[in-house]
Amino acid sequence: MRRRAYISIGTNVDRERHVRAAVDELGTAFGPVDVSPVYETGSVGFAGRAFYNLAAAVDTPLPPASLVACFKAIEDRYGRQRGGDPYSDRTLDLDLLLLGDCILESGRLHLPRREITRHAFVLRPLADLAPDLEHPILKQTMAVLWAGFDDPDQWLRPVDFPW
């Protein structure tokens, strides 16, 4: 059974190259990739360089743990450093946000991912990509969740990304 997987993509190191690489890698692994607009966003939790963030969607038969393992392998190929401060610069960060209507809490894996409603850099691109997508727990669409998002400390601006 194939389900729609929604993925958050972020980078603040060699941003343009890593955004392209992430989308290309997802395409190689899963086939057609739908993407949101790209946003420049402030770093959250540390004083670092601005990020490029976007959301992507692919169709896949893989279970959540296999998807996460695939995303970690992609991150590793592009120099992702692990084990240090969780709030630090990122060459590439791929996070599974949603997988169909799956609700899961297993160790560190939570679906839907909690950051959807906490961070503008996750919710705004997801609302652009899939405005009518319903959050499987909150039973509100991404567009409605974005319309109600209110955190003036989280800035973002669209990037005219040269695909």
Description:
There is one protein chain. By secondary structure, the chain is of the alpha+beta class. The chain has a single domain, classed as Alpha-Beta Plaits, CATH 3.30.70. It contains four helices and eight strands, in the order E-H-E-E-E-H-E-E-E-H-H-E. Strands 1, 2, 3, 4, 5 and 8 form a six-stranded antiparallel sheet that branches. A two-stranded antiparallel ribbon has the order 6-7. A hairpin with a 2-residue loop joins strand 6 and strand 7. The radius of gyration is 15 Å and the shape is globular. The protein starts with a strand and ends with a strand. The model has no long low-confidence stretch (mean pLDDT 93).
Total strand segments: 8
Give the averaged pLDDT, no decimals: 93
CATH superfamily heading: 7,8-Dihydro-6-hydroxymethylpterin-pyrophosphokinase HPPK
Could you give a short account of the major beta sheet? 6 strands, antiparallel
CATH class, anyone? Answer: Alpha Beta
Radius of gyration: 15 Å
Counting structural domains, the number is: 1
| Fraction of residues in helix | 25-40%
CATH topology: Alpha-Beta Plaits
Enumerate the spans where pLDDT stays under 50 for 5 or more consecutive residues: none
* Strand proportion: 25-35%
Query: Which structural class do the helices and strands define?
Result: alpha+beta
Based on Cα principal axes, name the global outline.
globular
Order of helices and strands: EHEEEHEEEHHE
Distance between the termini: 31 Å
Provide the CATH architecture.
Answer: 2-Layer Sandwich
The DSSP helix count reads 4
